[in-house]
From TrEMBL:
Protein family: Belongs to the MinC family.
Domain Septum formation inhibitor MinC N-terminal: 6-74
Function: Cell division inhibitor that blocks the formation of polar Z ring septums. Rapidly oscillates between the poles of the cell to destabilize FtsZ filaments that have formed before they mature into polar Z rings. Prevents FtsZ polymerization.
Stored InterPro entries: CAP/MinC_C, MinC, MinC_C_sf, MinC_N, Septum_form_inhib_MinC_C
All residue ranges annotated as the Septum formation inhibitor MinC C-terminal domain in the record: 115-216
Recorded name of the encoding gene: minC
Pfam families xref list: MinC_C (PF03775), MinC_N (PF05209)
The name this protein goes by in its record: Probable septum site-determining protein MinC
Amino acid sequence: MANTAELKGGSFTLSALHLVDGDIEKAADFLKEKVDQAPNFFASAPVVIDISQTDDQIDFAQLKTAVQKAGMIPVGISGCKNARYQSQAKEAGFAIMNAARQAKAAEPVMVPTKIIRTPVRSGQQIYAKNSDLIIMNHVSAGAEVIADGCIHIYGTMRGRAIAGANGQQEARIFCHNLQSELISIAGNYWLSDKIQDEFWGKGVVISLAENNLNIEHLAL
């Protein structure tokens, strides 16, 4: 009999909300603010809640409802070593994300660089799977360019640039005119309000250092 479905391993980039205490309302307000700032990126996006930094009792049912009302989709709990808390999280409908039990993913085989010569219009999404991405034109607001490797943008960047989408922390974003709604490397992101004025509209290179984004002027 022919198979009607297949179950395979996959790699996906998920946002992670790190709770520092049991104040669910405060955390939900933070998420809603991010959704309002960049709805095309965060609205209905899956999120994992990391509770490793808090010792407070958590109402997981309330947490799930609060995240949903904020506009995101709660999919799992990470950093939970307490068996009782794990049971409560499961009862609330969360998956338990245990990195220690996950098989290490094989290193992806990189393929030739993807080159886009035309402008990337609002609403478009360009994805360079297992490769670098070169945009030889402008990227409009509301557009999204994604690469598992590095991203090079030779025009004005007004949309969202997501490099290292498969977790590569060595990925870089090179941009000749940075006016981006969002920049991200290996799941670490900044919205436009975090980009310093000295780099706005300038040529820059964006990298990741100790899980923090770093921007430098691009030497031309």
